[in-house]
Amino acid sequence: QVQLQESGPGLVKPSDTLSLNCTVSGKSITASAHYWSWIRQAPGKEREWIGAVSYTGLVYWSPALKSRTTVSRDNAKNTLYLQMNKLKPEDTAVYYCAADRSIGLVSSNPHYWGQGTHVAVSS
Fold first, then answer.
1. Closest listed residue to residue 46, CA positions, set 97, 102, 93, 104
2. Which of 101, 86, 77, 102 is nearest to 5 (CA)?
3. Are 20 and 6 in contact (CB under 8 A)?
4. Rounded to the nearest 5°, which phi and psi values hold at 47?
5. Do residues 18 and 87 lie in contact, with contact meaning Cβ atoms separated by under 8 Å?
6. Cα pseudo-dihedral 59, 64, 67, 73, rounded to 10
7. Is the dihedral of CA 45, 6, 112, 55 positive or negative?
């Protein structure tokens, strides 16, 4: 059973950089045919896919957020990372990490989800 746990600061100031971790258990992030996503949901808005990393280390980005986003991983720690810079108040959202067995599924409707971590962007 794949389990994901996000962690990070609850409050970030505008123009700062957000750094989030996602610790994975129950499955290696290098396990064949597994993909690992970051997704967010702002208040009153639909879920928005941010980016993903594959079991081979290939990285995928949402075109809308690519210029401000870095998705990476640490295989030894079985942990995923998200960095987003130049934060704006509209980046306030619950940020989730998620997993599935294809890039199509992990970017649209993943099977496995973390509990999410709320990030508020405010001065």
1. 93
2. 77
3. yes
4. -60, 145
5. yes
6. -30
7. positive
Q: Annotate the chain with three-state secondary structure.
A: CCEEEEECCCEECCCCCEEEEEEEECCCCCCCCCEEEEEEECCCCCEEEEEEEECCCCEEECCCCHHHEEEEEECCCCEEEEEECCCCHHHCEEEEEEEECCHHHHCCCCCEECCCEEEEECC
User: Confidence class of residue 67 from pLDDT cuts 50, 70 and 90?
Assistant: very high
Q: How far apart are CA 52 and CA 47, in angstroms?
A: 15
Where does residue 21 rank: exposed (0-12), middle (13-18), buried (19+ CB within 10 A)?
middle
Confidence of residue 40 (pLDDT cuts 50, 70, 90): very high
Contact call for residues 22 and 114 (beta carbons, < 8 A):
yes
Residue 25: pLDDT band (50, 70, 90) is: very high
Q: How confident is the model at residue 116 (pLDDT cuts 50, 70, 90)?
A: very high
